[in-house]
């Protein structure tokens, strides 16, 4: 097992910048804005040949009792409990703050190994900038610069050396069948995305708070269900473009859209107690454009009466009718009802998205479909659909070859899509139909001859 290194500190000391440098990524949002990170964020890091797991945490206030700050503190405490060693990050430019003493007292009581790192020391004398922090009693402070990388290699080498870990265990690569299925949970703010993830994994892994915009980053949560590995991705709630004012929220939207593009299956969460909005349709449209397998979860179903339930079903059927390939599940993320059926459809949607479609069978289905209903004529002729093969997965792409296929109408493509879906049982995933028209080999020759005559 790779060691776990947790980065802890008060707000805006550079924890996420250090996390991004250690993981060689841009996974954690970084801005000159205190309190940006709220949930704990995991990533794989490597220094030389030595690998480790790095955990980014929100600004830590151990004494907070209520509100979002208390929820952030709970996340940080859990991250410290899971860690092998803690990097306590302080700000060298601002000097020691009273909150640093409170955090140091808390960390000392946990019994975890602690390394004190003084950040933002670029261009400063190490002895001067670290002098004040000796009184914390956490050993020799390490002067570093998260932004520039100064001293970071030595910091991590010292952390790993103190754990007595010379070489990491080699990671098992495994085959494609053992790769975890990545599931992104998306929707408008405050529909219950974080509550659903916490219920599925059985712990308060991400902050679930009755306030829109609580989640700002895309947080990946690995877990197992019935022996199968999954990665759940909690995302920021997406609002209408005109409602997104803060730069921080704009970054959160980008991270959510990236999470959709990178995942295998999307759970689109709707709120049964609110009308289906234009924003719900926009989010659904982006999922379809990205080609991701999809399951729709209608949350807070337990809190409405039969009349409202029927109205919600009609609204979904009308306003989200382009999602007719996806199954819709009424659930209660808070109580955990409907989650077993939800996961059955997640498995089915993923299997459909990764399905292999043999060329002979595709061609036979295509020919049967054409015999049953031919495409409309275009001018004097009719498009000729000759054979089909699979052009990709996640989403499945069916490439059809023939002549004059540019004249095939969208309605006829939908007809073919329905035939392929029925036979291969492709429920829960978009399906792409791609037409490849054979070129007439004499067209260019004729043009060339005309040019020579001139």
UniProtKB/TrEMBL annotation:
<feature type="domain" description="EngA-type G">
    <location>
        <begin position="181"/>
        <end position="354"/>
    </location>
</feature>
<dbReference type="Pfam" id="PF01926">
    <property type="entry name" value="MMR_HSR1"/>
</dbReference>
<dbReference type="GO" id="GO:0005525">
    <property type="term" value="F:GTP binding"/>
</dbReference>
<feature type="binding site">
    <location>
        <begin position="187"/>
        <end position="194"/>
    </location>
    <ligand>
        <name>GTP 2</name>
    </ligand>
</feature>
<dbReference type="InterPro" id="IPR005225">
    <property type="entry name" value="Small_GTP-bd"/>
</dbReference>
<keyword id="KW-0690">Ribosome biogenesis</keyword>
<keyword id="KW-0677">Repeat</keyword>
<comment type="function">
    <text>GTPase that plays an essential role in the late steps of ribosome biogenesis.</text>
</comment>
<dbReference type="GO" id="GO:0042254">
    <property type="term" value="P:ribosome biogenesis"/>
</dbReference>
<comment type="similarity">
    <text>Belongs to the TRAFAC class TrmE-Era-EngA-EngB-Septin-like GTPase superfamily. EngA (Der) GTPase family.</text>
</comment>
<dbReference type="GO" id="GO:0043022">
    <property type="term" value="F:ribosome binding"/>
</dbReference>
<dbReference type="InterPro" id="IPR027417">
    <property type="entry name" value="P-loop_NTPase"/>
</dbReference>
<feature type="binding site">
    <location>
        <begin position="234"/>
        <end position="238"/>
    </location>
    <ligand>
        <name>GTP 2</name>
    </ligand>
</feature>
<feature type="binding site">
    <location>
        <begin position="299"/>
        <end position="302"/>
    </location>
    <ligand>
        <name>GTP 2</name>
    </ligand>
</feature>
<dbReference type="InterPro" id="IPR016484">
    <property type="entry name" value="GTPase_Der"/>
</dbReference>
<keyword id="KW-0547">Nucleotide-binding</keyword>
<keyword id="KW-0342">GTP-binding</keyword>
<feature type="binding site">
    <location>
        <begin position="9"/>
        <end position="16"/>
    </location>
    <ligand>
        <name>GTP 1</name>
    </ligand>
</feature>
<feature type="domain" description="EngA-type G">
    <location>
        <begin position="3"/>
        <end position="167"/>
    </location>
</feature>
<protein>
    <recommendedName>
        <fullName>GTPase Der</fullName>
    </recommendedName>
</protein>
<dbReference type="InterPro" id="IPR032859">
    <property type="entry name" value="KH_dom-like"/>
</dbReference>
<feature type="binding site">
    <location>
        <begin position="119"/>
        <end position="122"/>
    </location>
    <ligand>
        <name>GTP 1</name>
    </ligand>
</feature>
<dbReference type="InterPro" id="IPR015946">
    <property type="entry name" value="KH_dom-like_a/b"/>
</dbReference>
<feature type="binding site">
    <location>
        <begin position="56"/>
        <end position="60"/>
    </location>
    <ligand>
        <name>GTP 1</name>
    </ligand>
</feature>
<dbReference type="InterPro" id="IPR006073">
    <property type="entry name" value="GTP-bd"/>
</dbReference>
<dbReference type="InterPro" id="IPR031166">
    <property type="entry name" value="G_ENGA"/>
</dbReference>
<dbReference type="Pfam" id="PF14714">
    <property type="entry name" value="KH_dom-like"/>
</dbReference>
<comment type="subunit">
    <text>Associates with the 50S ribosomal subunit.</text>
</comment>
């Amino acid at each position: 097992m790779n060691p776990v290194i947790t980065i802890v500190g008060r707000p805006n000391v550079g924890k996420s910048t250090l996390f991004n440098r250690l993981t060689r990524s841009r996974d954690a949002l970084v801005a000159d804005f205190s309190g940006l990170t709220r949930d704990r964020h995991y990533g794989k890091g490597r220094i030389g040949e030595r690998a480790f797991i790095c955990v980014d945490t929100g600004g830590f206030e151990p004494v907070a009792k209520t509100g979002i700050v208390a929820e952030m503190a709970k996340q940080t405490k859990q991250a410290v409990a899971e860690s092998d060693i803690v990097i306590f990050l302080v700000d060298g430019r601002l000097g020691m703050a009273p909150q640093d003493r409170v955090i140091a007292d808390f960390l000392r009581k946990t019994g975890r190994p602690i390394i004190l790192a003084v950040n933002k020391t670029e261009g400063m004398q190490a002895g001067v900038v670290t002098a004040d922090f000796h009184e914390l009693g956490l050993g020799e402070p390490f002067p570093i610069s998260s932004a520039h990388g100064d001293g970071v290699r030595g910091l991590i080498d010292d952390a790993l050396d103190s754990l007595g870990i010379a070489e990491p265990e080699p990671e098992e690569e495994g085959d494609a069948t053992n790769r975890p299925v990545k599931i992104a949970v998306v929707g408008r703010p405050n529909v219950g995305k974080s509550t659903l993830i916490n219920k599925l994994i059985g712990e308060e892994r991400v902050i679930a708070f009755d306030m829109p915009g609580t989640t700002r980053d895309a947080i990946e949560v690995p877990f197992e269900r019935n022996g199968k590995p999954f990665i759940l991705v909690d995302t920021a709630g997406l609002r209408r473009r005109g409602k997104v004012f803060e730069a921080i929220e704009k970054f959160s939207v980008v991270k959510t859209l990236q999470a959709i593009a990178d995942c295998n299956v999307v759970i689109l969460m709707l709120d049964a107690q609110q009308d289906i909005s234009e924003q719900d349709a926009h989010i659904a449209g982006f999922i379809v454009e990205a080609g991701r397998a999809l399951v729709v979860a209608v949350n807070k179903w337990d809190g409405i009466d039969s009349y409202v339930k029927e109205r919600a079903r009609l609204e979904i059927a009308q306003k989200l009718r382009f999602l007719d390939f996806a199954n819709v599940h009424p659930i209660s993320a808070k109580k955990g009802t409907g989650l077993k059926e939800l996961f059955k459809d997640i498995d089915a949607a993923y299997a459909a998205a990764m399905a292999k479609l043999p060329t002979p069978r595709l061609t036979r289905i295509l020919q049967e479909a054409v015999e049953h209903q031919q495409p409309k004529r275009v001018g004097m002729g009719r498009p000729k659909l000759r054979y089909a093969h699979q052009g990709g997965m996640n989403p499945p792409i069916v490439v059809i070859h023939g002549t004059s296929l540019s004249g095939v109408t969208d309605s006829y493509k939908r007809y073919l899509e329905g035939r392929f879906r029925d036979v291969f049982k492709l429920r829960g995933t978009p399906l792409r139909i791609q037409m490849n028209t054979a070129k007439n080999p004499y067209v260019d020759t004729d043009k060339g001859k005309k040019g020579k005559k001139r």
